[in-house]
Amino acid sequence: MKHWMIAILLGAVLAGGIYASEISTTPQSRQSEDWWKQRFDEKKAEAERGDNPYVFMGDSITHGWDNPDRLSAHFPGMKIANLASGGDCTEHTLWIINNINWKKVNAKVIMLMIGTNNTGQRGREQEKPSDTFEGIQAIIKNLRKKTPDTKILLLAIFPRGEMASDQARVRNSMVNAMIPMLADNKSVFFMDINARLLDADGATLSKEIMSDLLHPTNKGYAIWGEAVKAKLEELAAMPPSKT
Q1: Per residue in 42-63, is it b (16+ CB within 10 Å) or e — as a string?
Q2: pTM of the predicted structure, to 2 decimals
């Protein structure tokens, strides 16, 4: 192959990678969607009341904690503002962060899980695991800037797909291999509870835990709540680690 052809192909590959990374790391609103705008306005007001020590952020998986029976069963007595919305990617979480008055929120702990939609919505060819990692990294950096006294519990992206070989599972696992480096165990803490969601073989995801092999069932949420509750309370009790 001629050198000029190689250069053109290499340039196209690099350009594609940069483009995907820019999408994942550039704040993007969804306010053109009426339901999303209404939800954001309501959740923003709820968070900015300043009486919710815990804030949840993420996508539809975390959005599912809005079920009041589920929330009271697994986080009794804990006041939580849930800023997650179904369909959100890293860029949408970045926009939310930029449009919240965090001084009013006064959160002690943020639980964050985001990224499974990045490839789900854009496809593996456009969104690489490194692009999603950069989006999560940008979220952590922005939260540390906006609300430096708040502890962040960063969760591994949950498994999806029935088998460990499923492409969506492989891709999420690749992101999960990178994001622990974002934790400093002072303000940002990484937690991987994925093994608890899988069958005894450590690989199979059952529909008993996630009926569509993506969103947890009540049993899946019970496992999640049991896994993180004590850690959330521990982080909330820690003194501020402002940097």
Answers
A1: ebbebbbeeebbbbbbbbebbb
A2: 0.90
